[in-house]
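Technical annex, item 7. During the second reporting period the consortium partners agreed on a shared format for inverse folding records so that results from different sites could be compared directly. Each record opens with the tokenized structure and is followed by the designed sequence. A conforming record, contributed by the partner at site C, is shown below for reference.
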């Protein structure tokens, strides 16, 4: 059924969204990716998203969301400090509702290109305190988008209930393990693949990878 339809994947070029992209390619007749560009993001991330899409033969659209820079706490309250992300630190410019905004823009684009399926790598299992990554929010937004645009969107969240180790397992199930491991960018220091090994994103990714690899070595499903 889904094989006849088209999907848009919200795509950052990271481990999670690349796993979602492989999942979508297997599920749908046609897939496109949409990548959001905004102030604090390494331009390397955009390049990574573009090159992965190209390599997999997928059309990628980059949407400029740099207006988010005007809504960060720092930009609103402190005009005297640089909003750029410091090397190796978590972004201090998080915008409330960012995922909500991204999914809504992705939906507008999806309808334009004739896709009613949206795929996002949000995850409730380690949602890091972002309420708009939770399952109940995504379901609520799905209803809202359908009403807003009079269109039958279906938002897919293949990673919603997986932990990091299970996400590696899914990539492996999709025959994408090596690609995801070698080509995706998770590291805050902009090091593709296994990363710098020092930043919080690398540590989280490695912990999941190690747990998956030891389970795989023992033949255990997570
Ligand atoms: Zn790193």
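Designed sequence (site C submission):
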């Amino acid at each position: 059924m889904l094989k006849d339809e088209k999907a848009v994947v919200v795509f950052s070029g990271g481990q999670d969204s690349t796993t979602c992209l492989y999942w979508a390619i297997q599920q749908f007749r046609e897939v496109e990716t949409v990548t959001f560009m905004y102030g604090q993001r390494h331009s390397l991330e955009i390049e990574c998203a573009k090159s992965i899409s190209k390599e997999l033969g997928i059309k990628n659209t980059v949407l400029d969301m740099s207006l988010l820079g005007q809504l960060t706490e720092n930009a609103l309250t402190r005009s005297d400090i640089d909003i750029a992300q410091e090397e190796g630190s978590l972004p201090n410019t998080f915008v409330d509702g960012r995922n909500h905004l991204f999914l809504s823009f992705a939906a507008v684009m999806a309808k334009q290109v004739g896709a009613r399926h949206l795929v996002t790598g949000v995850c409730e299992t380690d949602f890091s305190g972002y309420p708009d990554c939770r399952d109940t929010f995504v379901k609520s937004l799905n209803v809202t988008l359908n009403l807003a645009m009079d269109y039958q969107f279906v938002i897919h969240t293949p990673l919603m209930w997986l932990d990091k180790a299970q996400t590696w397992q899914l990539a492996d199930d999709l025959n994408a393990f090596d690609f995801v491991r070698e080509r995706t960018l998770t590291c805050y220091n902009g090091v593709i693949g296994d990363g710098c090994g020092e930043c919080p994103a690398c540590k989280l990714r490695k912990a999941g990878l190690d747990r998956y690899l030891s389970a795989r070595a023992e033949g255990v499903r997570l």
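The radius of gyration is 17 Å. The pocket of zinc ion is lined by residues 187-189, 191, 195-196, 198-199, 201-202 (CB under 6 Å). All partners now use this format for quarterly exchanges.
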